[in-house]
Amino acid sequence: MSMATFDCLAFDADDTLWHSEDGFHATEMAFYELLAPFAPTGIDIKAALTATERANLHTYGYGVKAFGLSMVEAAITISQGQVSTDVLAQLIHLTRDLLLAPVRLLDGVPEVLQELAQHHRLILITKGDLVHQTRKVTSSGLDHLFDHVEIVLEKDVATYTKVFRDISVQPERVCMVGNSVKSDILPILELGGHAVHIPYQFLWELEKAEHPPVSQRFGELKSINELPEWIHGIVSQTGKA
Ligand SMILES: [Mg+2]
User: Fold this and answer.
1) Do domains 8-18+105-237 and 21-100 have the same CATH topology?
2) Domain 8-18+105-237 part of CATH 1.25.10.10
3) What is the pLDDT of residue 4?
4) How far from each other are the two terminal CA atoms of the chain, in whole angstroms?
5) What's the pTM?
């Protein structure tokens, strides 16, 4: 049996294993339409909503509930208090719908995870609302493939350091896979680990970041289906296969 280069493959969840941002995107489109009749001319509704989300981030954290509260707040601000209770009720319903939406896995995810789990320890690291993220993990059908699941408040160097220390893994022996360069890639590279970026069709404004150059420790793939081959390539190059 070959010795793996990585002690642990860590996966992001939202927009890496299953769809998430497309739901936010569709809800935002509905928000713009609902607010348009109440918005003074020349107001950039999208920019106003993003500014509200950014201002609330430290208070509400990440996730659908935070997004819902920011939509309601932005609706009241943008309309200068004129938005109807009917529209506010619709925003609350849209938020609830997002929270209750069934998990939709991305193409190839179960097959690739099953393959990788044969020779690697898989862990899941996701940020956001504890209730919502927990339900998605447990209803995804992927739960059993992960040796460890961590739901965190923030994905930064300090958080990853603590997560890896808690499970006794050296960051240098981790490969993290995710759709956000800011949250899933840069902190891991800073800690000396490997990272693989797989983009999703939508990226939240507050997750945007410049991509580092591709290297021995950082790969850019189009789909998770390319992941086993990439990992195999790294293992071969380091001569530990
Ligand atoms: Mg993600």
Assistant:
1) no
2) no
3) 56
4) 9
5) 0.92
Helix (H, G, I), strand (E, B) or coil at 95: helix
pLDDT digits (tens, 9 = 90+) for 175-227: 999 999 999 999 999 999 999 999 999 998 888 999 999 999 999 999 999 99
Ligand 1 centroid from CA 16, angstroms: 6
Phi/psi of residue 10, each to 5°? -105, 135
Give residue limits of the domains in the chain.
8-18+105-237, 21-100
Q: What is the reported pLDDT for 204?
A: 87
Check residue 238 and give its pLDDT: 65
Q: How far is the CA of 99 from the centre of ligand 1 (A)?
A: 16
Residue 38 exposure: Cα atoms within 13 Å on the Cβ side:
21
Taking the centre of ligand 1 as the mean of its atom positions, its distance from the CA of residue 204, in whole angstroms, is 10
CATH topology of domain 21-100: DNA polymerase; domain 1 (1.10.150)
CB 176 within 8 A of CB 125: yes
